[in-house]
Write a structure and sequence with these properties.
Layout (H helix, E strand, L loop, with lengths): L10 H11 L4 H7 L4 H6 L4 H19 L23 H6 L6
Length: 100
């Protein structure tokens, strides 16, 4: 949940810092496959959760581009041949809307 005093000016900075911490520069990935951060902010999603969802959305798009997307689980960010049949809870919630 977005803190009630949070503004959109501060929120994406924290999302960017989260992505930078996992070596996923927002600017690089937004140029390749834009993720709707404004919509996540408006939906009261925390900056950390938005960064996680963006990361997974970008992995899904990248895996599709190289024809390595998972065929077992719809909208899975994991590549073909991954082990395990269950996704973490946040991915099950997001599977229908990832990247939307």
């Amino acid at each position: 949940m977005v803190p009630p005093t949070d503004t959109y000016d501060a929120w994406p900075k924290r999302a960017r810092e989260t992505l930078d911490s996992i070596n996923m520069p927002m600017e690089d990935w937004q140029a390749v496959s834009a993720f709707d951060f404004k919509r996540k902010f408006a939906a009261d999603v925390s900056s950390g959760d938005a960064a996680l969802r963006a990361n997974r959305s970008w992995w899904l798009q990248q895996n599709k581009r190289i024809d390595q997307n998972c065929c077992r689980t719809p909208n899975s960010w994991l590549p073909q041949g991954h082990r395990g049949s269950r996704l973490p809870t946040i991915m099950r919630r997001e599977s229908a809307t990832i990247g939307a």
